[in-house]
Write a structure and sequence with these properties.
The complex is a heterodimer of chains A (111) and B (118). Chain A is built from no helices and eleven strands. Chain A is mainly beta and 111 residues long. Chain B is mainly β. Classes of the chains: A mainly beta (111), B mainly beta (118).
Chain lengths: 111, 118
Protein backbone atom coordinates (compact mmCIF):
# COMPACT_ATOMS: atom_id res chain seq x y z
CA UNK A 1 0.00 0.00 0.00
CA UNK A 2 1.10 3.53 -0.64
CA UNK A 3 2.15 5.21 2.56
CA UNK A 4 3.44 8.50 1.31
CA UNK A 5 1.38 11.42 0.22
CA UNK A 6 3.18 14.12 -1.68
CA UNK A 7 2.23 17.64 -2.46
CA UNK A 8 1.97 19.36 -4.68
CA UNK A 9 1.09 16.78 -7.33
CA UNK A 10 2.51 19.13 -9.94
CA UNK A 11 4.80 22.14 -9.70
CA UNK A 12 5.71 24.52 -12.49
CA UNK A 13 8.45 27.10 -11.97
CA UNK A 14 10.97 29.23 -13.86
CA UNK A 15 14.65 28.43 -14.07
CA UNK A 16 16.53 29.87 -11.13
CA UNK A 17 13.62 29.60 -8.73
CA UNK A 18 13.54 27.19 -5.81
CA UNK A 19 11.26 24.16 -5.79
CA UNK A 20 9.85 22.65 -2.61
CA UNK A 21 8.10 19.30 -2.46
CA UNK A 22 6.52 17.77 0.61
CA UNK A 23 5.96 14.19 1.67
CA UNK A 24 3.90 12.82 4.53
CA UNK A 25 3.78 9.27 5.79
CA UNK A 26 1.75 7.28 8.30
CA UNK A 27 3.88 4.73 10.13
CA UNK A 28 7.24 4.85 11.88
CA UNK A 29 10.28 4.72 9.65
CA UNK A 30 13.96 3.85 9.71
CA UNK A 31 14.79 6.18 6.84
CA UNK A 32 13.21 8.24 4.09
CA UNK A 33 14.63 8.54 0.61
CA UNK A 34 14.03 10.83 -2.34
CA UNK A 35 14.25 9.69 -5.95
CA UNK A 36 14.01 11.38 -9.32
CA UNK A 37 12.47 9.78 -12.40
CA UNK A 38 12.73 11.22 -15.87
CA UNK A 39 9.84 10.38 -18.14
CA UNK A 40 9.74 6.68 -18.95
CA UNK A 41 13.05 5.98 -17.25
CA UNK A 42 14.29 4.31 -14.09
CA UNK A 43 14.76 5.96 -10.73
CA UNK A 44 17.80 7.90 -9.61
CA UNK A 45 18.54 7.95 -5.90
CA UNK A 46 18.95 11.51 -4.66
CA UNK A 47 19.33 11.45 -0.91
CA UNK A 48 18.62 9.35 2.17
CA UNK A 49 17.80 10.77 5.58
CA UNK A 50 17.61 8.57 8.65
CA UNK A 51 14.96 8.87 11.34
CA UNK A 52 17.45 10.38 13.81
CA UNK A 53 18.46 13.11 11.37
CA UNK A 54 16.59 16.37 10.86
CA UNK A 55 18.28 17.90 7.84
CA UNK A 56 20.62 16.84 5.09
CA UNK A 57 22.25 18.58 2.16
CA UNK A 58 23.61 17.35 -1.14
CA UNK A 59 24.62 19.96 -3.68
CA UNK A 60 21.51 21.97 -4.53
CA UNK A 61 19.30 19.60 -2.58
CA UNK A 62 18.14 20.09 0.97
CA UNK A 63 16.00 17.53 2.74
CA UNK A 64 14.32 17.93 6.10
CA UNK A 65 12.61 15.33 8.21
CA UNK A 66 10.14 15.91 11.02
CA UNK A 67 9.31 12.57 12.59
CA UNK A 68 6.85 14.15 15.02
CA UNK A 69 4.76 15.33 12.07
CA UNK A 70 5.69 12.35 9.92
CA UNK A 71 6.70 14.61 7.09
CA UNK A 72 9.67 15.47 4.92
CA UNK A 73 10.46 18.16 2.40
CA UNK A 74 12.79 18.31 -0.56
CA UNK A 75 14.11 21.71 -1.61
CA UNK A 76 15.87 22.16 -4.92
CA UNK A 77 17.61 25.52 -5.08
CA UNK A 78 18.40 27.49 -8.21
CA UNK A 79 16.44 25.08 -10.37
CA UNK A 80 17.47 24.23 -13.93
CA UNK A 81 15.48 23.00 -16.89
CA UNK A 82 17.30 19.67 -16.49
CA UNK A 83 15.63 19.26 -13.08
CA UNK A 84 12.33 18.65 -14.87
CA UNK A 85 11.23 15.20 -13.71
CA UNK A 86 8.99 13.37 -11.28
CA UNK A 87 10.19 13.26 -7.70
CA UNK A 88 9.21 10.51 -5.28
CA UNK A 89 9.71 10.05 -1.59
CA UNK A 90 10.02 6.51 -0.28
CA UNK A 91 10.02 5.25 3.28
CA UNK A 92 11.66 2.18 4.79
CA UNK A 93 10.39 0.69 8.02
CA UNK A 94 13.74 -0.90 8.77
CA UNK A 95 17.28 -0.41 7.55
CA UNK A 96 16.98 -3.52 5.42
CA UNK A 97 13.36 -3.05 4.54
CA UNK A 98 11.35 -2.62 1.43
CA UNK A 99 10.47 0.85 0.21
CA UNK A 100 7.00 2.33 0.11
CA UNK A 101 6.70 5.12 -2.42
CA UNK A 102 4.66 8.29 -2.33
CA UNK A 103 2.50 9.44 -5.22
CA UNK A 104 5.15 11.76 -6.56
CA UNK A 105 5.45 15.38 -7.62
CA UNK A 106 5.83 16.30 -11.27
CA UNK A 107 8.25 19.22 -11.48
CA UNK A 108 8.49 21.32 -14.62
CA UNK A 109 11.23 23.94 -14.82
CA UNK A 110 10.77 26.39 -17.67
CA UNK A 111 13.93 27.85 -19.25
CA UNK B 1 29.56 1.59 -9.49
CA UNK B 2 26.20 0.15 -8.38
CA UNK B 3 24.67 -0.31 -11.80
CA UNK B 4 21.55 -2.36 -12.36
CA UNK B 5 20.47 -3.41 -15.83
CA UNK B 6 17.18 -4.75 -17.13
CA UNK B 7 16.50 -6.69 -20.28
CA UNK B 8 14.57 -6.18 -22.41
CA UNK B 9 13.92 -2.46 -22.16
CA UNK B 10 10.75 -2.77 -24.17
CA UNK B 11 8.62 -5.74 -25.17
CA UNK B 12 5.38 -6.10 -27.09
CA UNK B 13 3.62 -9.43 -26.99
CA UNK B 14 0.32 -11.04 -27.84
CA UNK B 15 -2.24 -11.82 -25.18
CA UNK B 16 -1.70 -15.26 -23.66
CA UNK B 17 2.06 -15.40 -24.10
CA UNK B 18 4.65 -15.34 -21.32
CA UNK B 19 7.32 -12.70 -20.99
CA UNK B 20 10.55 -12.94 -19.02
CA UNK B 21 12.30 -9.82 -17.71
CA UNK B 22 15.85 -9.98 -16.38
CA UNK B 23 17.35 -7.80 -13.68
CA UNK B 24 21.11 -7.87 -13.20
CA UNK B 25 23.40 -6.13 -10.76
CA UNK B 26 26.50 -5.47 -12.83
CA UNK B 27 29.17 -4.60 -10.30
CA UNK B 28 27.88 -5.83 -6.98
CA UNK B 29 26.19 -8.81 -5.42
CA UNK B 30 22.64 -8.58 -4.19
CA UNK B 31 20.97 -11.20 -2.04
CA UNK B 32 17.79 -9.14 -2.20
CA UNK B 33 16.16 -7.60 -5.22
CA UNK B 34 12.75 -5.97 -5.56
CA UNK B 35 10.23 -5.86 -8.38
CA UNK B 36 7.92 -2.88 -8.84
CA UNK B 37 5.16 -2.04 -11.28
CA UNK B 38 4.31 1.45 -12.39
CA UNK B 39 1.21 2.44 -14.36
CA UNK B 40 1.24 5.66 -16.40
CA UNK B 41 1.41 8.80 -14.30
CA UNK B 42 1.32 6.76 -11.10
CA UNK B 43 3.80 5.81 -8.44
CA UNK B 44 5.73 2.57 -8.02
CA UNK B 45 3.94 -0.33 -6.42
CA UNK B 46 6.07 -3.04 -4.87
CA UNK B 47 5.12 -6.43 -6.27
CA UNK B 48 7.54 -8.76 -4.56
CA UNK B 49 10.85 -9.16 -2.79
CA UNK B 50 13.21 -11.55 -4.49
CA UNK B 51 15.64 -13.47 -2.29
CA UNK B 52 18.56 -15.44 -3.68
CA UNK B 53 18.18 -19.11 -2.97
CA UNK B 54 14.68 -18.92 -1.54
CA UNK B 55 11.11 -18.16 -2.55
CA UNK B 56 10.06 -14.64 -3.31
CA UNK B 57 7.81 -12.75 -0.94
CA UNK B 58 4.79 -11.29 -2.69
CA UNK B 59 2.82 -8.23 -1.68
CA UNK B 60 -0.86 -8.53 -0.95
CA UNK B 61 -2.92 -8.76 -4.10
CA UNK B 62 -0.07 -9.88 -6.36
CA UNK B 63 -0.64 -13.31 -7.90
CA UNK B 64 2.45 -15.41 -7.37
CA UNK B 65 1.42 -17.90 -10.05
CA UNK B 66 1.11 -15.13 -12.59
CA UNK B 67 4.28 -13.26 -11.73
CA UNK B 68 6.98 -15.88 -11.32
CA UNK B 69 10.20 -14.72 -9.73
CA UNK B 70 13.47 -16.61 -9.79
CA UNK B 71 16.58 -15.29 -8.05
CA UNK B 72 19.08 -17.80 -9.37
CA UNK B 73 22.30 -16.05 -8.44
CA UNK B 74 23.59 -13.09 -6.46
CA UNK B 75 23.50 -10.93 -9.58
CA UNK B 76 20.37 -12.05 -11.42
CA UNK B 77 16.65 -12.05 -10.72
CA UNK B 78 14.00 -12.76 -13.33
CA UNK B 79 10.32 -11.88 -13.44
CA UNK B 80 8.12 -13.93 -15.75
CA UNK B 81 4.67 -12.61 -16.54
CA UNK B 82 2.73 -15.74 -17.44
CA UNK B 83 -0.23 -15.71 -19.82
CA UNK B 84 0.00 -11.96 -20.15
CA UNK B 85 -3.14 -9.93 -20.79
CA UNK B 86 -3.61 -6.28 -21.78
CA UNK B 87 -4.17 -5.29 -18.15
CA UNK B 88 -0.62 -6.47 -17.41
CA UNK B 89 0.74 -3.75 -19.67
CA UNK B 90 2.88 -1.59 -17.46
CA UNK B 91 6.38 -0.38 -16.66
CA UNK B 92 8.24 -2.97 -14.59
CA UNK B 93 11.23 -1.77 -12.56
CA UNK B 94 13.62 -3.80 -10.46
CA UNK B 95 15.98 -2.67 -7.75
CA UNK B 96 18.86 -4.34 -5.97
CA UNK B 97 20.31 -3.84 -2.54
CA UNK B 98 24.10 -4.36 -2.36
CA UNK B 99 25.50 -6.93 0.04
CA UNK B 100 28.41 -4.60 0.77
CA UNK B 101 28.82 -3.60 4.39
CA UNK B 102 27.69 -0.08 5.14
CA UNK B 103 25.54 0.18 2.05
CA UNK B 104 22.64 -1.92 3.17
CA UNK B 105 19.90 0.67 3.16
CA UNK B 106 20.32 1.93 -0.40
CA UNK B 107 18.63 0.36 -3.37
CA UNK B 108 19.77 0.85 -6.94
CA UNK B 109 17.15 0.80 -9.63
CA UNK B 110 17.21 -0.61 -13.12
CA UNK B 111 16.07 1.45 -16.12
CA UNK B 112 12.76 -0.37 -16.34
CA UNK B 113 11.00 -2.58 -18.88
CA UNK B 114 7.98 -1.33 -20.78
CA UNK B 115 5.57 -4.24 -21.38
CA UNK B 116 2.74 -3.85 -23.86
CA UNK B 117 0.32 -6.74 -24.26
CA UNK B 118 -1.84 -6.59 -27.37
Amino acid sequence: SQQGEEDPQALSIQEGENATMNCSYKTSINNLQWYRQNSGRGLVHLILIRSNEREKHSGRLRVTLDTSKKSSSLLITASRAADTASYFCATAGTSYGKLTFGQGTILTVHP
Amino acid sequence: GAVVSQHPSRVICKSGTSVKIECRSLDFQATTMFWYRQFPKQSLMLMATSNEGSKATYEQGVEKDKFLINHASLTLSTLTVTSAHPEDSSFYICSARPNRAGVTDTQYFGPGTRLTVL
